[in-house]
Each structure stands twice: as C-alpha cells, then as structure tokens.
Specification:
By secondary structure, this protein is of the alpha+beta class. It has one domain. It contains two helices and eight strands; from the N terminus they run αββββββββα. Strands 1-2-3-4-5-6-7-8 form an eight-stranded antiparallel sheet. A hairpin with a 2-residue loop joins β3 and β4. The protein is elongated.
C-alpha cells in the first residue's frame, strides 16, 4: 500500500464517520433532548435545596417541561421549523411557568436567562453546547450543569427579592 492509498483510506473513513454523525443527529436529536430532560429529572428527584423541593412539571402550563424550585424554573423548550428537520432547543431560567388563571403581581426581580442550544454528534456521541459558549457537554454532564444553574438562578432571584422587599421573610 502506498502512502497515498493510506492517506485516501483515512480520508474516506473520516468522511464516512462524518456522514454517520449527520444521519445520527437528524434521526435521534429528539430522543437525545428527551434523554436530557429525563436525566435532569432523575438527578433532582426527591432532592431539595433547604426546605425547597425540586419538582418536575407539577401542574399543566403553556410549556409543560420544566424543573421547578419554589418560584423559579428551568423550562425546556423545543421548536421545529416547518419542513426543516433541524430542531431549535432552548432552556430558559426564569420564574416558574404560571398555572391556569394565575398571574404575577410584580415584575421579575432579575431577568430571565435563555440558553440557545446546539446539539452535535461526534464519533457517534452527542454533545450539547450553548450558542453563547464553546464549552461542550455530554448529556449526562449537561444535565447536572442545568440543575446547578437552576440553584444559582434561584439564589440570585431570592437575593433580589430580599433586596426589593426587605420587610418580607423569604
């Protein structure tokens, strides 16, 4: 085998793997999104931060997939563009979604955080990243990071409420 034959074989193998990753991404992106949500649910199930319990979608809401911690939530949102197989994945850290016939009486004490997500497959393994960051996570690692970020958002939200309403015990 010549050097060129070896080079060509490696190049063809790399192109073949790239094509498999593309097919995997389009066929299994929705399954991986569900796997991410399921993993977030699993790692927070039965746990609490102090007296506040983590609850997964405990009531009907406009966006039904969310992890709630008292009055804040990590809401999982996906939109599918008509005719385009790619999906747009977002996670929004904000006040919890409202129940039917419920409303907030004041503005949010801190702004919501929205993560626009990328999902890619490399050598048959899925990786998540935020469009605002170059860090890549496996689904397992990303699920833990999401739960941690909800705790941090909750703490910042609570601190802002205490500063806004110092006479109320939160």
């Amino acid at each position: 085998m010549t050097d060129f034959d070896e080079f060509l074989q490696k190049r063809n193998a790399a192109e073949s793997m790239k094509a498999r990753d593309t097919i995997l991404l389009f066929s299994d992106a929705g399954k991986e999104w569900q796997r991410l949500k399921d993993r977030v649910r699993e790692i927070t199930d039965g746990k609490s931060l102090g007296a506040e319990k983590f609850e997964w979608s405990s009531y009907p809401a406009p966006y039904p997939d969310f992890l709630k911690l008292k009055d804040v939530a990590a809401t999982f949102i996906v939109t599918v563009a008509a005719g385009i197989p790619a999906q747009n994945f977002r996670i929004v850290f904000a006040r919890r979604p409202l129940r039917a016939n419920e409303m907030w009486v004041d503005d949010e004490p801190i702004p919501a955080k929205t993560w626009l997500l990328n999902l890619e497959a490399t050598n048959g393994i899925f990786y998540w990243s935020q469009k605002q960051s170059a860090v890549k996570w496996t689904t397992e690692g990303f699920a833990g990071y999401i739960a941690q970020q909800l705790v941090e958002y909750y703490e910042a939200y609570t601190a802002a409420l205490k500063a806004k309403y110092p006479w109320v015990n939160f």
